[in-house]
Structures are given as structure tokens and as C-alpha cells.
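REQUEST ID: PR-0412
SUBMITTED BY: lab tech R.K.
PRIORITY: routine
TASK: structure prediction, single protein chain
INPUT:
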Amino acid sequence: MTDSLAGRTIDAIWRIESARLIAGLARMVRDVGLAEDLAQDALVIALEKWPETGIPDNPGAWLMTTAKRRVIDLLRRNKLRDQKYEEMARGSELYTEDEVDRAVDGEVGDDLLRLIFTSCHPVLSRDARVALTLRLLGGLTTDEIARAFLVPESTVAQRIVRAKKTLSAERVGFEAPSGEALKGRLSAVLEVIYLMFNEGYSATSGGEWLRPTLCREALRLGRILAEIAPAESEVHGLVALMELQSSRFRTRVGANGEPILLMDQNRGLWDHLLIRRGLAALERARALGGPLGPYALQASISACHAQATVAASTDWVRIAALYEALSRVQPSAIVELNRAVAIAMAFGPAFGLQLVEELASEPALANYYLLPSVRGDLLVKLGRAAEAREQFELAAELTRNERERELLLKRAAECDLTELK
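STATUS: complete
OUTPUT:
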């Protein structure tokens, strides 16, 4: 095996196995930072040995065995001088490999659940949660995370280091909450995954409209969470939303990377496997009973689009009703703006524009580029091209995404052509 091929193979294996490896080690040493260091040590050994010996039949087990040996050495070395390990060793004179095996070889699902809740702990800032989750559960390097969010690598590295120190200083336990505590903590986990996916699906800044790496990692984490927390309706709701949104990827950008809006996309090219998976996940969320939460409601809206074989057959009345329901469980100006769009599509642009005008004074939308963008679109439909052009130009000034800006300026130019006719 050539060095380059071995390197790519090992990198792929690491992406698959790293989260389970770190999760298993963290359950034992009770420190995610230390667990990651031990896992990285095992990876370094693999990088040294595998190009010569070949990839083992079960690389995940090989990495775990190697890491466990490092744990045993570390625990023996530090047993008397480190209180953290004395607490683990209480009642035992000596660490044996059998004891380590019993500590590490538990339910993988339980370990991953603990790791997800630890990396998304509320004690951490939102940015830190996202960075640490991508690092520990996604296996991404700091450079990859930095490129995904268009921030300096040093910034990401500092976030991760500070996050680990904060978890240690605050003595955050490596455990998944239960009972009433679970609901609040679960919302923080889902928020991280949702933010990750949204930033990949519609990048807030930079020269690309899509950042597929973030979407893929968010969807992968959502699927893992759905497997290990199957009784949580909103987990399935978020997975459904991401599956359905992901089905449009190949039609969201043109040959040159330019954005293609939903109503202009070729629906025949949507990924129907992902649509089926999304609808199945949504059905699981509904089957658990109770009122739908914000993620399941958004997935229901996305399902309306997915089930419309052509844009003209979209059930906008139902979408408007779903946005109304969403505004009750998660009130926000952005939800109201989306509801206005749905009402415009269902009952005419004049009704939608009236609602949009009522939102103009909302502080949350003061610098939100989609407010003038939506207003411009409705004005075009009402034949008010000159006013629409001003709105598209304003939206272009407000957006930080270069592709979005190009699209908005193109729409403004089209308004000029409309006026000339």
C-alpha cells in the first residue's frame, strides 16, 4: 500500500471510528480532553505501523486496544498522585487490563450519547459547542472546522482548548442527563446540530452558498442521536428536516456555483432516497405522540415541498398553517416573515406584503437581508419594479454571502429591464 493511499484510508477510518473511540475512553478517564489525547496517540501509532503492516481487519478494535494500553500505563503511573484516578481506583489496589476492559467495553450508544451531551454542555458558549462537537464527534481537524466557518484556524483551536478547560474546571460529569434535566439539555444538543446544518445549507458569509461538510456532519450526528435516543420526538423531527433539506443539494446551485431558488429548482433531480428517509423520520416523530415541536413542524413544512412534484402543486395553505403553529411554539420575527411568504403564495402577494410591512419595525429584522429581499419579490409580483429594485439592492448590501449578493443584484437588474418594457 502506498503511503498516500494508506494515509487516505487511515483518515477515512479515523472519521468513522474516532467518536466511538473518544467516547469509550472518556467514560473511563472522565475527561474528554484527555480522552481525545489518548485517541490521538493511538492514531499516531496507527500512522506509523499500518503503512508497513497493512490495515487490520477490524481497525476500530485495533485503535481501541492500543488506546486502552495507553490508559493502563497512564493510570498506573498517576494512580497515587492524581485524585481523579484515585477516585476511580477506590477499592482496588491495582489497575488490571480486565478492569480497563470492563470500564471501556460498554454500550457504544451510551458512550456516544454521553459524549454528545458533554460536548454540547450549556456551560460552553455556542461557538465552543459547535467547534468541540465537530472535533470530537465529527473527527474534523481544526483547519477543516476553520475553513467550514471561514474563521482563522487559531480561533478554532482556542475555542476547543478553552472548551476542554472549561469542562474540566466546572467538573462537568461525563454523563447523559435523565428525567426533566434531559429536556433542557437535549434542546442545547439539537440547537448545535441545527446551527451546524443551517450554516452549511445557506452560508452566512464567504464565496460559497453551500458548505456540504457541515451539512454532512450535522446529518450524521443527527442520525447517531436518533439511534441512541429513539424515544425523543424532536430528535426524529430534526433528522427529518435535515434529510428533506439535503435532498435538494444537487439543485441548489448552478454549474458556476450560483444559487438556484427553491421554486426554480429541477425537482426531478431531488434525491428521492433522502426524501423517503426524511418522511420516515417525520412519521417516527409523529408516532411518538404529543404536539409536534419546532423541528418536526419545520420538517412538516419541508415535506410539503418534497411531496410537490412541481412547484405549482405546492400546498401553500397547509404551509401557512404550519408556520402559524410554529409561531406558537417558537415565536420569532423570522418565523413570521416565512409565514408572510407562505400567505403570499397561498392568497396573493398583496396579503403577504401587508404582513411584511408590519414586520419592518421588528428590531430582530433590522439588518436581516431577507426582509428587503422578500419585500422586493412581492413588489415584483405586484408590478412595482422600481420599488422592488431598491429592495433588492438594499438586501445585497446587507448580505455577507458573495453568491447571495450576486443573485440579489441580478434580480435588481432584472427590475430595470422590466421598467424598460
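NOTES: The first strand starts at residue 205 and ends at 206.
REVIEWED BY: pending
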